[in-house]
């Protein structure tokens, strides 16, 4: 496989199904395989869990519905070891939910000969080889429009005790399929709608000011930026609008396709500390610094300035102000001080973020 950083190369192996009502295709997509369902706790009260059980019948072997936001190694340990206690019980995992659900499912995709989650964590932390020897396939069904995880191989796993974030990514952690059904998103509350939409915006912009950008990732990213900035304000005033839900879901999918090849960059690297130390939801943590990060990106490379101008509809130097105005019109503050970060901490945080794996993808080094 050619390296992702090759500007002539684009790779995404995920089969994608996109349509209102697409959830009904699950039995066909699953075939005759036995499945485990990973789903968010509220799905039971919403009737979604019973709906999926009825669709899959006896092929649904087990349900994991106690997923918590930002999955932590302490919370995952028992779930993972219980899941892998019988390694051949299921062939496929179906993840129905937002980014935390899909991240949890990706963690469960990967097993080892020792059947020990502590060994897995040692590998994720870089203290030992990640001795992954057993794998399950994944059908990812996002219920939010923003994560992009349904078309990427990455899962974020947190260790709050150690104040660290681990990234799980292997050739085997690409989902087999992504099933995007905008009908599943109509009931999302305003806060989740906003956070997930801004997460998609961040993914798209991060794919542009990125050392790994290529012409195809740019095509997806530019379209995603334009769509999110047009649709999200309309959707926030009309949350029950299914066509708008479909448009924002498609924008999030495009953003996911873009950063599936580039990875994210500085804004996401900053976001991890903002989530760990300041408790910000991911969608806000990775989006509020976008004007700040764009200011650092402008003028670094003329080709990136041109793509940013195309995406935002203004010259690159005008982009940070347009982004800030857009964010603040949605009620999202864009200064670190708005989130309790002292001025003296900002430079340190940015330097640490630039040194991180995602920060090193940023053009403005």
How are the secondary structure elements laid out?
Blueprint lengths: L14 E4 L7 H5 L4 E5 L3 H4 L1 H9 L3 E5 L8 H11 L8 E6 L1 H11 E2 L5 H8 L9 E2 L1 E6 L11 E6 L4 E6 L7 E4 L9 H19 L6 H22 L5 H21 L3 H13 L3 H4 L4 H8 L4 H11 L6 H11 L13 H13 L10
Parallel strand pairs: 1-10, 2-3, 2-4, 4-7, 7-10
Antiparallel strand pairs: 5-6, 8-9
Helix pairs in contact: 7-8, 7-9, 8-9, 8-13, 10-15, 12-14
As a percent range, the share of strand residues is 5-15%
Radius of gyration, taken over Cα atoms and rounded to an integer in Å:
20 Å
User: Based on helices, strands and strand pairing, what is the structural class?
Assistant: alpha/beta
- Average pLDDT figure: 95
**Sheet with most strands: strand arrangement:** 1-10-7-4-2-3
- How do the helices and strands follow one another from N- to C-terminus? EHEHHEHEHEHEEEEEHHHHHHHHH
Q: Indicate the CATH class of the largest domain.
A: Mainly Alpha
The separation of the N and C termini measures: 28 Å
CATH domain topology of the largest domain: Dehydroquinate synthase-like, alpha domain
Assign the CATH superfamily of the largest domain. Dehydroquinate synthase-like - alpha domain
Shape: globular
- What is the number of beta strands? 10
Number of helices: 15
Can you summarize the main beta sheet?
6 strands, parallel
List low-pLDDT spans: none
Task: Write a structural description.
There is one protein chain. The strands form 3 sheets. The chain has a 6-stranded parallel sheet, with helices on both faces. It has a two-stranded antiparallel ribbon with strand order 5-6. The model has no long low-confidence stretch (mean pLDDT 95). The protein has 2 domains: 169 residues, Rossmann fold (3-Layer(aba) Sandwich), CATH 3.40.50.1970; 174 residues, Dehydroquinate synthase-like, alpha domain (Up-down Bundle). The protein contains 15 helices and 10 strands. By secondary structure, the chain is an alpha/beta fold.
């Amino acid at each position: 496989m050619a390296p992702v950083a090759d500007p002539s190369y684009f790779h995404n192996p995920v089969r994608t199904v996109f349509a209102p009502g697409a959830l009904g295709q699950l039995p066909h997509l699953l075939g005759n395989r036995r499945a485990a369902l990973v789903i968010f706790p509220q799905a039971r009260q919403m009737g979604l869990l019973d709906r999926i059980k009825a669709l899959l019948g006896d092929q649904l072997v087990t349900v994991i519905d106690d997923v918590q936001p930002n999955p932590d190694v302490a919370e995952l340990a028992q779930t993972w070891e219980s899941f892998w206690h019988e390694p051949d019980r299921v062939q496929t995992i179906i993840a129905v939910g937002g980014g935390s659900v899909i991240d949890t499912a990706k963690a469960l995709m990967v097993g080892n000969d020792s059947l020990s989650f502590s060994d897995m964590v040692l590998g994720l932390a870089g203290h030992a080889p990640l001795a992954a020897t057993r794998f399950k396939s994944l059908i990812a069904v996002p219920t939010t429009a923003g994560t992009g995880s349904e078309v990427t191989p990455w899962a974020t796993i947190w260790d709050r005790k150690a104040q660290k974030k681990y990234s799980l990514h292997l050739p085997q952690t690409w989902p087999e399929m992504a099933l995007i059904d905008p009908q599943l998103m109509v009931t999302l509350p305003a806060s989740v709608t906003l956070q997930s939409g801004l997460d998609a915006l961040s993914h798209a912009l991060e794919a542009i000011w990125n050392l790994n950008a290529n012409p195809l990732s740019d095509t997806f990213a530019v379209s995603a930026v334009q769509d999110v900035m047009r649709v999200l304000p309309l959707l926030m005033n009309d949350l029950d609008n299914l066509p708008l839900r479909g448009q924002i879901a498609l924008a999030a999918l495009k953003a996911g396709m873009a950063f599936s090849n580039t990875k994210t960059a500085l804004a996401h690297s900053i976001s991890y500390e903002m989530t760990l130390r300041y408790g910000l939801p991911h969608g806000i943590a990775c989006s509020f610094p976008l004007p700040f990060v764009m200011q650092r990106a402008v003028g670094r490379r003329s080709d990136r300035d041109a793509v940013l101008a195309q995406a935002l509809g203004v010259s690159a130097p005008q982009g940070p102000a347009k982004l800030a105005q857009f964010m603040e019109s949605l009620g999202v503050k864009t200064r670190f001080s708005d989130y309790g970060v002292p001025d003296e901490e900002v430079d340190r945080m940015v330097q640490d973020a630039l040194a991180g794996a995602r920060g090193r993808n940023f053009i403005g080094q």
